[in-house]
Amino acid sequence: xxxxxxxxxxxxxxxxxxxxxxxxxxxxxxxxxxxxxxxxxxxxxxxxxxxxxxxxxxxxxxxxxxxxxxxxxxxxxxxxxxxxxxxxxxxxxxxxxxxxxxxxxxxxxxxxxxxxxxxxxxxxxxxxxxxx
Length: 132
Description:
Layout: E1 9-10, E2 14-16, H1 21-28, E3 36-39, E4 45-49, H2 51-59, H3 70-73, E5 81-82, H4 87-96, E6 101-106, E7 109-115, H5 116-126
Parallel strand pairs: 2-3, 5-6
Antiparallel strand pairs: 1-7, 3-4, 6-7
Helix pairs in contact: 4-5
């Protein structure tokens, strides 16, 4: 039985909670980056920052992006998945919650990221070839 840890992107890009919001903004300026994970010094997932987070929490209230720490503005993730979850169950979870990407944790520590697209590809690879 395949597990999430076999299909996840290991060690996703994270920022330490003390990093300035400007650093998250630089990462999010790249079109392929939709969210930045924030972790504490022990690697525990603190939250997620998106472009909307930066606008709502830093730009709109007029805070300084160089003086505001990402740990102060990170949003708790809607969902997380444990690394030992079965891939089929993970796929159903993502479908049920209409989630494109979800952080993967082990005991609260961020260890990866699972995307629906990667998971669909992995499940297709695991299917046995059709009988002739």
